[in-house]
Design brief:
This protein is mostly beta strands. 3% of the residues lie in helices and 48% in strands.
């Protein structure tokens, strides 16, 4: 009976999900490459673009696997990795202390260094700035090799989480986190968990600091610097204390705060319904106010169009809200089941959202999977794709590398979409998601190189193409294959000609990237000769001797041409004219003693017909 009930529940959930989510998928969106990182118990990772290309990736690992890398310090150390643009490790190192250290955030400072943050319980090894007690927010400035420039613990005697950070327009660092303390660096505490926003100088000194909250949990996901020099954030709040919420609808609401440059509140508003609503990590400033994407389980109050059962966490929707510069609600829309935590504007005025939701994934069990969807400016879904493994998949800070080209740091268990070799339970899964319809490599132009080859003089020939747009690599081919062996690197090709081969050879190239390969280029044709024993190659009674020649070369016409030419032109293999030989009494003579060794082409005109042949100078 229990099995039947479970089966029925899963069936009804799948049926409801199907009915609620009849949306298009984007078949052009592909995982072009992926890599797994970890130890048997690695946590998730955060990353940022690295100077000189590639990425800096920060993660943490469990204490009893410290021998997987040299230099571990103890419980839950941080691992800093430098990886290249395709996810291959360049170097990696441990950072931390003997107690627990959990990776949080990393970003470049724009001047060649990086800021990283973590939660730390440690007070030794790399943590030399004195932990305030329990867990502190630890911010570290490192150089491009991962060496510590400075580090500092921020917090009080109770728990502070790692910080999210953002470079400000004046070069300072805007940081925010969750705090339980009322002492140390904290100017206040209002009860339970508060939202703490502070500003640092590049040397790590606090210049502004404010705490926001009341007796309830007040998280904070995102803060932005506004055009007027102040700040805007959307937290979570319940009426009471600092939270002035005359429009409070019940349970938690999304709590918006407009702050001045010193972090003082200019105005505040709450938005939501009778169920749970939360501010999240997606905020944008618009020309007429602000746009934020929140978490909602409500279908009343400010919220309409909710998808699913109200107040059910498993059916939580992403809620899109537009407000004016004073916080007045302009427009809102529920975007369907699943909560977005990363948003990118599109050039068409819409948005691409990354989030997670509970669904019957590839394992046929209820798991958390990653979704990506595109919406237009009015919130209508254009398409939605999902990615995941057998595990509960989560993800971190997504990097947009270009239009419809993202790098996603996630966690999962190798299976389904996660097709890289794992290291244990819940590995780091880094994958590139790209619309390959926009990133197909362009074809190369026609290869260039020698048209006529004399293998007795030049047993190898070089050919090249100009770089093609969107190409990451190149492939070369010759036909027939038996003409020689090829060695190529990117846009250059070397052919080593087969001994004794003569004939016409086609040389082709094509470009390659992680979305596939282009068509073959237009063929370049090379006439390949051994250049030994040449006499009358046209069968028209044109005698050329000696060929190969040393200093003097002779021509004689035996009457088979339509008419006797008045001159003979000689060209090198690059098409440059180097001699014009007058013809007298059906013959010509060329003093080639000052000409470089090599192969040349002679041309003559007989009754408006052009005839040509080959000459070899060999000393």
């Amino acid at each position: 009976m229990i099995k039947k009930i479970v089966f029925l529940s899963l069936f009804l959930f799948g049926l409801k999900s199907t009915l609620l989510a009849q949306v298009n998928v984007n078949p052009q969106l592909q995982i072009t490459w992926q890599s797994c990182f970890g130890t048997p118990y690695d946590d998730g990772a955060t990353l940022c673009p690295a100077y000189g290309g590639g990425y800096m990736m920060l993660s943490s690992t469990m204490d009893y696997f410290i021998d997987t890398l040299p230099g571990g310090f103890g419980r839950d150390d941080l691992i800093l990795r430098r990886i290249d643009a395709s996810g291959q490790i360049i170097w990696q190192k441990y950072i931390g202390g003997s107690d627990q250290d959990w990776a949080g955030f990393i970003m470049p400072d724009g001047l060649g260094n990086y800021y990283m943050s973590a939660t730390t319980y440690s007070n030794d090894h790399d943590i030399q700035s004195a932990n305030h007690g329990d867990a502190d927010a630890w911010i570290v400035k490192i150089d491009s090799s991962g060496n510590i420039i400075w580090e500092r613990c921020f917090g009080g005697s109770r728990y502070e989480d790692w910080c999210v950070m953002q470079m400000m327009s004046n070069g300072n660092i805007l940081a925010w986190t969750m705090s339980f303390s009322s002492d140390g660096d904290l100017p206040a505490h209002y009860g339970c968990s508060d939202a703490w926003i502070f500003i640092l100088t590049p040397s790590g000194e606090i210049v502004e600091s404010k705490v926001f909250g009341n007796a309830h949990n007040n998280g904070i996901g995102k803060v932005i610097e506004t055009k007027d020099g102040g700040f805007f954030t959307v937290s979570t709040g319940v009426e009471g204390g600092m939270v002035s919420a005359p429009g409070h609808h019940g349970d938690f609401d999304a709590w918006a705060l407009k702050l001045d440059k010193h972090l003082n509140i200019e105005w505040q508003k709450v938005y939501g319904g009778s169920c749970e609503d939360k501010g999240y990590t997606c905020i944008l400033e618009t020309h007429s106010g602000y746009l934020f994407f929140a978490y909602t389980t409500s279908n009343d109050g400010d919220v309409t169009g909710y998808n699913g059962t109200p107040c059910e966490v498993v059916d939580a929707n992403t809620w899109m809200v537009r407000i004016d510069t004073l916080g007045n609600l302009i427009w809102q829309k529920s975007l369907g089941i699943g909560v977005a935590s990363v948003v990118f504007p599109t050039i068409s005025g819409g948005f691409v959202l990354f989030g997670d939701k509970t669904a019957l994934g590839c394992s046929n069990y209820l798991n958390q999977e990653i979704f990506i969807k595109e919406i237009d400016s009015l919130g209508s879904t254009l398409w939605e794709n999902s990615y995941g493994s057998y595990a509960n998949d989560g993800f971190g800070k997504v990097i947009e590398r270009g239009p419809y080209d993202w790098l996603v740091p996630a966690v999962g268990e190798p299976s389904c979409d996660m097709q890289c070799e794992g290291f244990g339970w819940q590995d780091i899964w880094l994958f590139n998601l790209k619309d390959c319809n926009l990133y197909k490599p362009h074809p190369t132009d026609m290869p260039l190189g020698p048209h006529v080859v004399c293998t007795s003089l030049t047993p190898q020939s070089n050919y090249y193409v100009h770089a093609a747009a969107l190409a990451q690599a190149y492939e070369w081919s010759i036909f027939p294959n038996e003409a020689g062996t090829i060695v190529y690197q990117d846009t250059s090709l070397i052919i080593t000609w087969a001994a004794g081969f003569e004939g016409t050879v086609s040389v082709l190239a094509r470009s390659i990237n992680d979305c596939g390969m282009s068509d073959w280029s237009k063929a370049f044709y090379a006439d390949v000769h051994t250049c030994t024993g040449i006499a009358d190659e046209n069968g028209l009674g044109i005698a050329v001797w000696p060929n190969p020649a040393n200093n003097i070369l002779n021509f004689k016409f035996n009457g088979n041409l339509p008419s006797t030419p008045t001159s003979i032109e000689v060209y090198d293999l690059f098409g440059r004219k180097i001699a014009v030989l007058p013809v007298a009494s059906n013959q010509a003579r060329w003093d080639c003693s000052a000409v470089s060794v090599g192969m040349y082409i002679y041309k003559l005109n007989s009754n408006n017909q052009v005839f040509k042949g080959r000459l070899t100078i060999n000393r």
